[in-house]
Write a structure and sequence with these properties.
74% of the residues lie in helices and 5% in strands. It is mainly alpha-helical and 164 residues long. The two termini are 39 Å apart.
């Protein structure tokens, strides 16, 4: 059996993903080259490494990705939810600042901050009252930072558990 045929048979028997097979191909080629440098023939080197099916099964067992645990899946789901909340709130905020802000300034002559601080209470059944609120809350930024910190913590936990 030729070197390339043997390597192909081992990789086919392993059934591993393409990215892993590329690395295994390089390892198998270097192992065979080392045996040839030691004076073995190609047939002796292949016989010493064993049948392609058995070596492929051993490689599959050693290199197969392990399934994710329930804890890892939970952390990934929490990270996804936090990322969606962060992206959604930032998108909503910037949409209000750009599109809504443009129309508020165009129609009323006020900025969004000024328009948000004035509210009209009342209606057709009584006198109209105007109250002034405090404006935009700086806690929005704190909420975004909290979401981002939670997302970062989830991703760090996932990487830590995945590396075990």
């Amino acid at each position: 059996m030729k070197k390339e045929e043997y390597i192909r048979a081992v990789l086919r028997a392993s059934g591993l993903p393409r990215s892993v097979r590329r690395r295994l191909r390089a390892d198998l080629e270097s192992d065979l080259a080392a045996r040839l440098e030691q004076g073995e023939t190609m047939e002796q080197a292949i016989a010493a490494m064993g049948p392609a099916d058995r070596l492929g099964a051993e490689l599959r067992e050693a290199w197969a990705p392990r399934p994710r645990s329930r804890r890892e899946k939970g952390v990934l789901i929490a990270a996804l939810v936090l990322a969606l909340l962060l992206a959604g709130s930032l998108l909503w905020y910037f949409a209000q600042q750009s599109v809504l802000g443009f129309w508020v300034r165009a129609l009323t002559g006020h900025t969004v901050g000024n328009a948000a601080s004035v509210g009209v209470i009342g209606g057709a059944d009584g006198p109209t009252a105007i109250f002034v609120s405090g404006g935009f809350s700086p806690l929005l930024i704190g909420g975004w930072l909290l979401l981002a910190a939670g997302l970062a913590a989830c991703l760090l936990l996932y990487r830590r558990w995945r590396s075990r």
